[in-house]
Specification:
The protein has 705 residues and is an alpha/beta fold. Helices cover 49% and strands 11% of the residues. The structure holds adenosine-5'-triphosphate. The site of adenosine-5'-triphosphate has 19 residues, from β7. It catalyses: S-ubiquitinyl-[E2 ubiquitin-conjugating enzyme]-L-cysteine + [acceptor protein]-L-lysine = [E2 ubiquitin-conjugating enzyme]-L-cysteine + N(6)-ubiquitinyl-[acceptor protein]-L-lysine.
């Protein structure tokens, strides 16, 4: 509590130490006003803030006050003291005295007074009759016997003696008070009687009876106590309320924590579900891809199956035909079923053997392209000087015409007169021209594998025929490629149509490069003079090496062996074919080397060893996405191609022979007087045509890829 007299002039201020006893205080003030007229009065009160002992003293049911209760109590005490001091100040107003309050908080009253004296430089201090109870240090040395009357402590050693005397003589009733000079602290006069205030004092009429006052004080104490108890009760209630609310808050916090935990769990579950969803989406995509590839595979299997069915049907028919032929007169059947062309027709077809229509020349004659009976044909003119008799020729040709396979060049007819053979025209060059890069685009590895498979398929067919047919002159120039890069072996059986003497004597004269031709010939043939199925395997091995490497024949086998030994196959592979699948290519390279073994016994079997490697290899080529193969080089499924015009069919129709043809082409064939199958040359049961919708749809689908 701060002082309100700090700026006051210490000489004009009289300090009056007041307690809580109103009665005593009134007496003291009354005295002071009377004896210090004209001076200002400062009410000094030492407030004991920690007098909580009074609580326990008052026996408040063992209540242990808490901090806030203590504070409240102190606050209340402070307010009460201020109120009391204010009342004291008010009692001085009628007397026209200017009064102040000085409240000092101190547990010890003596120390409080001493502190006030020192801090405020107090010169005049009036204390009650009990002043001597307090040990004011030096100030109280001579006050021990003062019992009843007010005491004036003159504390300033510089107090004017005259002024002091004036006060003493004029204002202070003799015998009522005791004076102290703080300078010499000498007792001036002892107070022997109990203070009885002068009846002339104006305060007398407001003074109460002592007992009344005591009652009043007691009552006030009681009120204070009940207020305290009330306050404590209220506090207790508030605390209980607070505790309840605290519990409620705690409960809500717990609930919130539970909800948060649940939320976390839900979030975890959510993220786990999201993971599951993305995983299942991945799986779904994978499965979709698998389904697509399975469907593709199924389509290719169906295509294969269809092709095989056709082949099977062909084979069955051929067997029947051959049986019939075997039973019937050969010359008769030839005349009936195998087209024979006149020399005039051949002449017309080749535009009088126009040199610009000549497409090649080999040991066994020249080859012209031509247009015969609305068909594109290649006509091979055999050397007349080396040929057999007419009958022999006709018989041989007829036998050859029965040998049909999708990978064998179809013999469409002959002209016995001019000893010429009429073949289907293959418009995409030979394997030789492709490997020599005479064509625009290098063959991709997928096409090369397909070509190898085609050759192998044709050889298996020939070798398994009854009797076994040996090609005997297999080399890249004999492998013709149609528009769909389907390989067709040409020149089957030609040597048998030409005199043997010529065959063995020709090499240096007709062949451009005899060494190259010999590179494909089985080494055992030079020893035994005999061609065997393994001779074809040898030639096939050399072609295989050329397909893999695209290298010249010279040192080909040696280079491949070396590369495989050094595990550096890539160095010899033809990189223009694209990225070869390593494992299968390596397998094939080993196989090719085995085919090229000098001893036929060491060569692999066509079916069990070569086909079993090539066939699955080819399947992977089919799996290769079409967009990875240049459109120009894309393999067209062979059954999409019309056997007559060799183009993808737009309106496929099934004829009585079971084969499907382009409608326009087959109608043209039938309308030009034919009643035989263009494929088998057998007589057709009828000439009705049925649209092949399934194939039509398959072609459309394939074209949209
Ligand atoms: N049906 C055909 N369609 C298109 N071109 C063909 C056909 N038959 C042969 N040829 C072409 O004629 C060329 C000559 O073929 P041919 O079979 O007469 O001789 P070769 O194979 O080059 O050599 P050789 O017969 O002396 O071993 C072939 O390289 C080929 O380009």
């Amino acid at each position: 509590m701060g002082s309100i007299v700090e700026d006051a002039d210490t000489d004009t201020v009289v300090y009056v130490a007041v307690g809580k006893n109103a009665y005593k205080t009134q007496q003291l003030l009354h005295w002071t006003v009377k004896n210090f007229s004209g001076k200002e009065i400062c009410l000094l009160h030492i407030h004991q803030p920690h007098s909580l002992n009074s609580f326990s003293d008052r026996n408040l049911s063992g209540y242990e006050p808490k901090d806030h209760a203590t504070k409240a109590f102190q606050e209340h005490g402070n307010q009460t003291v201020h109120k009391l001091l204010d009342q004291y100040v008010l009692t001085l107003v009628p007397a026209g005295v200017r009064a102040y309050k000085l409240l000092i908080e101190m547990d010890d009253i003596e120390k409080g007074i001493t502190k006030a004296i020192a801090q405020h430089n107090i010169r005049w201090l009036v204390m009650g009759a009990a002043a001597d109870r307090y040990n004011l240090g030096e100030y109280s040395k001579h006050t021990s016997d003062i019992e009843t009357g007010p005491a004036l402590l003159v504390l300033n050693p510089n107090t004017d003696a005259k002024q002091f005397e004036n006060i003493k003589s004029e204002s202070i009733p003799v015998g009522a008070l005791k004076y102290f000079d703080s300078y010499d602290m000498k007792e001036i006069k002892s107070v022997s009687s109990h203070l009885s205030l002068n009846s002339k004092w104006p305060f007398n009429n407001v003074m109460m009876d002592r007992s009344k006052l005591a009652d009043l004080m007691f009552h006030e104490d009681k009120t204070f106590e009940s207020q305290c108890a009330k306050e404590i009760r209220r506090r207790k209630e508030v605390e209980e309320q607070l505790a309840r609310e605290k519990q409620e808050v705690q409960k809500m916090k717990n609930q919130r924590d539970e909800i948060l935990e649940e939320l976390q769990m839900v979030q975890d579950q959510n993220s786990a579900l999201m993971n599951q969803i993305s995983e299942s989406q991945c799986t779904e995509t994978e499965l979709e891809e698998k389904i697509i590839s399975a469907v593709d595979l199924l389509i290719s299997f169906r295509e294969q199956r269809d092709r095989l069915r056709i082949e099977h049907a062909n084979a069955v028919r051929e067997v029947k035909v051959l049986r019939k032929i075997g039973e019937a007169d050969t010359s008769f059947s030839y005349r009936v079923e195998f087209p024979a062309f006149s020399f005039v027709e051949i002449n017309e077809a080749t535009n009088d053997f126009d040199p610009s229509w000549k497409i090649g020349e080999g040991r066994y004659g020249s080859v012209y392209k031509g247009q015969l009976r609305n068909m594109h044909v290649a006509i091979k003119m055999l050397p007349s000087y080396g040929c057999q008799s007419l009958l022999e020729f006709q018989h041989q040709v007829e036998v050859l015409s029965r040998v049909r396979h999708p990978n064998l060049l179809t013999l469409m007819g002959s002209c016995a007169e001019s000893r010429s053979l009429v073949y289907e025209y293959i418009n995409n060059g030979s394997l030789e021209s492709h490997l020599a890069h005479k064509e625009k685009n290098p063959l991709p590895w997928q096409i090369r594998i397909s070509i190898a498979t085609d050759i192998c398929s044709a050889l298996i067919f020939l070798h398994s025929s009854e009797p076994c047919i040996i090609h005997g002159n297999l080399k890249p120039s004999k492998v013709l490629l149609d528009a769909n890069f389907v390989a067709k072996l040409s020149d089957l059986g030609i040597p048998s149509l030409v005199q043997r003497s010529l065959d063995s004597a020709d090499t240096s004269t007709i062949c451009n490069n005899p060494n190259e031709r010999l590179a494909y010939v089985d080494p055992e043939y030079f020893v035994t003079g005999k061609l065997t199925p393994e001779s074809d395997v040898y030639s096939f091995g050399v072609i295989l090496l050329q397909l893999l490497t695209g290298r010249p024949l010279l040192g080909l086998v040696r280079d491949m062996k070396c590369a495989l030994e050094k595990e550096n196959l890539k160095a010899v592979l033809d990189s223009s074919a694209g990225e070869w699948p390593f494992f299968q290519t390596e397998q094939l390279a080993y196989l090719a080397l085995r085919c090229c073994e000098k001893t036929w016994l060491n060569r692999p079997d066509l079916v069990s060893e070569i086909w079993s490697v090539l066939e699955p290899f080819k399947a992977t080529c089919i799996d290769t996405p079409p967009h990875l193969i240049s459109k120009k080089l894309r393999r067209i499924p062979s059954h999409f191609v019309c056997p007559i015009v060799q183009e993808v069919m737009e309106d496929p129709y099934i004829a009585a022979d079971g084969f499907t043809y382009e409608e326009e082409a087959i109608r043209g064939w039938l309308n030009s007087g034919h009643d035989t199958s263009p494929m088998t040359n057998l007589k057709l049961d009828h000439t009705d045509l049925v649209p092949n919708y399934a194939l039509h749809n398959a072609i459309l689908e394939w074209q949209q890829q």
